[in-house]
Specification:
With 264 residues, this protein is an alpha+beta fold. 38% of the residues lie in helices and 20% in strands. The protein has 7 helices and 11 strands.
């Protein structure tokens, strides 16, 4: 009998085992949207880099173009009754060309750069994690909120607001970030996002003085109203923080102040 032949009555050789099925491919990781990135489990929502580049490039050019255009209109501007404009226009008109034109363009470039620096420094970056929310600006201002204290989050116009469960305000920051990106970042970590302030109907217009408010609160609101009128937004923000420490939440509608008490 040849070695390849099996003896009568012997069981047949077992069939070769089939190769194991390949493991299913992992689904592709979700790509962060433009203006959003994921870092070590945190979601960061910030203005994209191309937008900052556009600000640095566009604002100086717009400033130069605007001032150069005004220089071309000096003959008309010197006839205006408003003294400051008339004096400045006469000064530029009396300069010889090309110094006048080059000087006007240079002033416009500098003015545009100043506006660009201000715009970039005021940009807000929001870092959302399960245990904290960090609000940072490029001027170095950083505010951190305990995630456990956050009851709900919403956008009030151009302001991102974080409230606790009782309705007290934990943070309010001006922001140009996209609402959809912010909502996705907060909901990804279990925070409650709402479409509008649920306490909106509780606010009352402040007109100095309000009789049922403490005198100290009326004094602060009076000072803040003047700061808003004078364009001193930083000072107005500091007074607003002081009022929140006293238990009063302030909401601005244009140049008017509205106030409310948090729910006890």
């Amino acid at each position: 009998m040849s070695p390849t032949e099996s003896s009568p009555g012997a069981p047949p050789d077992p069939a070769p085992a089939a190769p194991p099925d390949p493991a299913p491919a992992a689904p592709p990781a979700e790509r962060p949207a433009a203006g959003e990135r994921v870092v070590a489990g945190e979601r960061v929502v910030a203005e994209p880099g191309w937008e900052r580049l556009l600000i640095w490039t566009l604002f100086p050019l717009l400033g130069a173009g605007a001032i150069a255009g005004l220089h071309a209109l000096t003959d008309w501007l010197v006839k205006l009754p408003w003294a400051p404009v008339k004096i400045a226009a006469k000064f530029v008109k009396d300069l010889p060309d090309p110094a006048a034109t080059l000087g006007a363009i240079g002033i416009g470039l500098v003015a545009g750069l100043i506006v660009a620096v201000t715009a970039v420094h005021e940009q807000l970056a929001v870092t959302v994690a399960a245990d904290r929310v960090t609000l940072a600006r490029r001027d170095g201002t950083v505010r951190e909120v305990d995630g456990k204290a956050v009851g709900l989050v919403f956008l009030d116009g151009k302001h991102l607001a974080l409230l606790d469960a009782a309705g007290a305000e934990l943070a309010r920051e001006k922001s140009d970030l996209k609402g959809e990106l912010l909502r996705e970042a907060f909901e990804a970590h279990g925070y409650r996002w709402v479409d509008e302030d649920p306490h909106l109907a509780e606010y009352r217009l402040w007109v100095a003085p309000v009789g049922d408010l403490p005198e100290s609160v009326n004094v602060l609101l009076t000072a803040r109203q003047k700061a808003l009128k004078d364009g001193k937004t930083g000072y107005a923000a500091r007074i607003r923080t002081e009022l929140s420490h006293l238990g009063f939440i302030i909401r601005d509608d244009k140049k008017h102040q509205h106030w409310r008490h948090p729910t006890p």
